[in-house]
Protein 1
Amino acid sequence: MKRTNTILVLLTMSFLSMNLSCTNSDEEVIIDDFSDLDAELIARDFSGVVLVAQNDNILFNKAYGRKNSQENGFHDINTVFDMGSITKQFTAAGILKLEMQNTLSVNDSLSKYFDTVPNDKENITIHQLLTHSSGLVGGIGGDYETITEEEFLDQVFDSELISSVGERFNYSNVGYSLLGLIIEKVSGMDYESFLNLEIFEPSNMHHTGYIIPDWQQDEVANGYLNGVENNKPNEENWSENGPYLNLKGNGGILTRANDLLLWSQSIMNNTVLDEAATNKYLFPHFQPTNIYESYGYGWGIENNDSENKLVLHGGTTDFFASDMWIYPNKGITIVVLSNELEAFVYTIAGAISNFLLTE
């Protein structure tokens, strides 16, 4: 299934939702407490899980709707979802982990890791891939299309740049798939195996990955589109190592809300990345963007110089939507995971944020 511009539209809505003022008043969401939130989610037939925490205290964690059409197929707080493009922050963390290990530099160029890189792309750096400033196209094929590494690289290297290298922010799934390949070449491990060893296991994220977790059939949600049930993500056309390269590294990792809270805590506690690497990870490296105020490494960055600094990222597929917000100076984490492609997902985190920050 091929992703479309819906990704950018909904990610933009994630940013706009902070203001919570839509042209359609029916879409405005104003809540004063978690009881209001609960009522709003029920009223809108939200399908998914919402988790809100401050430091180690879970303030709100509830599940709504259905994960499948089986008789008892209702969501619980441990339902596993496709996180979509939230995957990118794990690819970025993997790159920084390798830089901590002195095996690569974010200033390295593509030509260091790939043969036959054409002249217009040979000087693209890892930094530019991380910040969507490489000029590369957004994508070259469908998420579940069978494609070999050779075919993927040929198509990427034959594509025309959509802007000069380093000049503009152009959201690129292709760039993050290249980063996934670089992780494999430098580490000598499969992409998921490296993330599992260096990120997921140290963070106690035992329910995050493509194929390594021992998924129980009923814990992974089916996707829904317009009320019609579709496959579970890991029932789609994957290779024996998970998704093919049109998706691998840029999207498609499966997770549950509590694992993303563990990841947030890992970031704030420097469990995986040391303090210097974490600061680099969450630094506003590139602006302006058409989604966020600025972009770090796999994160949108807002209000960087204030106590209310916010790092966030959303994700969509044709059947799933997700959003993750962290206020690192306040220890606040907001996670929204849904198995429906619904714009309302991108107003929930903003509504929660507004009432938490004004308490």
Protein 2
Amino acid sequence: MSGKATIGWIGLGKLGLPIAARLAEAGYEVTGFDPAKARLDLAATKGIRITESPGEAAGRDVIFSCLPDDRALRAAALGERGIVASMRSDATYVEISTVSPDVSAEVGRAAIEAGVAYLRLPISGNASIAHTGNLSCFASGPKDAFEAVRPIVAAFTRAQTYLGEDEEARYAKLAINLMLAATSVMMGETLALARKGNIGWRDMLDVLAESAAASPMVKYKVGPLAERDFTSTFSCHQMAKDLDLILGAARAANVPVPMAALTRETFAAIIGRGMGEDDFIAPVRHTEWLAGMGEPDTTS
């Protein structure tokens, strides 16, 4: 597929807008829709043609949607005026949200009935880096459709992995997010234990960043934690939503995930304490509270 392909973008939220803007910067004609007028106004300043009709956005060569949850995907994609029904038969629908395999499969069945190509392409990474092109993605669905849109996807991702013809990409995204959620809880316990051992705050963060446990996520979070910055890049509310999807998928597949269940309870407690909009690394502060600790001395 050439760079002349027209793109429809539905969902111009914190993640969707910077990706759509990056495609516009790359020379694609992007027509965007969002139910929030403020997001449309902002999109217009980023080189995106805006429309108040999702059907018009869905009438392009390649249609992307970036939506918050199952309910939003079902409402946008299905029905007489939904994305699938509004698409041309030669168009491709690329769905990048984090949603359940079950709802994604509903959309897949509707796409087959309508004779359009449907790709599941969930994104790994968050809104704070979306404008840099350093996201990655997992793809499943018709392989020929994936290869056709790959040059477009490469404009906003550094890596694209094709996994299969069905819902494989949905499971991959949920599996990765389980690792992220559990790691945030483990970091909370790790840092609280280190503080009890009289290790300086920044010293322990330096140790952690250079240790065998230093995953890219751990290294990414060391900087904000050094400054005690819990501003959200991906909120506790959002992580709780994803953990619910993970637990649902695991139950349906008869996979025991006790750590996921315990991790979900930690996020429930954080949300219950009124910190749901904090970054998902907030289990660090929550564990300190459980251990009776105040704010650490961040100078050492």
